[in-house]
């Protein structure tokens, strides 16, 4: 990788990181590109060298933050070999990142409701689909491995993985709207109990 490419990547990450923080602090509608430029310590024109619009920058910031949150969560699961423990940890880790994800979901909901960002038009929609596929595939692999080891029973692994991922994800929206709507610890215990009653 050439030094120029590294500089471009660093500059983009600088802009994206500051943009996410400014969007989260001010809200999408109240954020100006000049606010982001000021936070990043660059000129507004520099932002436009990398991003065509505020909408494109928001979409990239959301994608980047979701990616970082997911990678952090998956990293916590890597060392766990026991199938049952790994599935339990998956539930608790992904329920535990609600606070981080709430900021992303809140921004996405605001941008979509303001009609500034159309999910159907976003190229990042394919990223979101990929993120869901990744989560579903990981859970499916955990369930299959557990069944292979005799810890879990034989079930429709793929559909069960979809349901678990959607259960966890479905709790994120009310939490993003108001954190007092979902008690994360209680919800994680209930999700865990439901899942293990089914898979054992």
What does this structure look like?
This protein has 200 residues and is mainly α. It has a single domain (59-199), classed as Tetracycline Repressor, domain 2. The protein contains nine helices and no strands. The protein has helices spanning 3-26, 33-40, 44-50, 54-77, 83-96, 98-113, 124-148, 157-177, 184-199. The longest helix is centred in the last third of the chain and has 25 residues, at 124-148.
Radius of gyration over alpha carbons?
19 Å
User: In CATH terms, what is the architecture?
Assistant: Orthogonal Bundle
Unreliable residue runs: none
Largest sheet: none
Report the top-level CATH class. Mainly Alpha
* Termini Cα gap: 49 Å
Task: Tell me the overall shape.
Answer: elongated
Mean pLDDT over the residues = 85
Alpha-beta content class: mainly alpha
By CATH, the topology is Tetracycline Repressor, domain 2
What assembly state would you assign to the polypeptide chains in this entry?
single chain
- Helical region count? 9
| Helix share bin | over 70%
Number of strands: 0
Fraction in beta strands: under 5%
SSE ordering = HHHHHHHHH
Query: Can you identify the CATH superfamily?
Result: Tetracycline Repressor, domain 2
> How many discrete structural domains?
1
Key words describing this protein structure:
200 residues; mainly alpha; Tetracycline Repressor, domain 2; 9 helices; 78% helix
């Amino acid at each position: 990788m050439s030094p120029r490419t590294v500089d471009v990547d660093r500059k983009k990450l600088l802009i994206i990181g500051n943009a996410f923080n400014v969007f989260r602090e001010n809200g999408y509608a109240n954020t100006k590109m000049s606010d982001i430029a000021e936070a990043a310590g660059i000129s507004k024109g520099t932002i436009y060298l990398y991003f065509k619009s505020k909408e494109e920058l928001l979409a990239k910031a959301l994608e980047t933050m979701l990616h970082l949150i997911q990678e952090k969560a998956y990293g916590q699961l890597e060392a766990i070999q026991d199938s049952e423990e790994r599935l339990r940890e998956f539930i608790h880790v992904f329920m535990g990142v609600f606070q981080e994800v709430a900021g992303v979901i809140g921004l996405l909901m605001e941008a979509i409701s303001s009609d500034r960002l159309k999910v159907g038009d976003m190229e990042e929609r394919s990223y979101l689909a990929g993120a869901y596929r990744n989560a579903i595939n990981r859970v499916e692999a955990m369930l299959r491995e557990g069944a292979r080891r005799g810890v879990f029973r034989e079930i429709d692994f793929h559909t069960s993985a979809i349901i678990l991922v959607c259960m966890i994800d479905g709790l994120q929206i009310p939490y993003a709207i108001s954190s007092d709507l979902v008690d994360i610890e209680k919800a994680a215990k209930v999700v865990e109990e439901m899942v293990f009653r089914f898979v054992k």
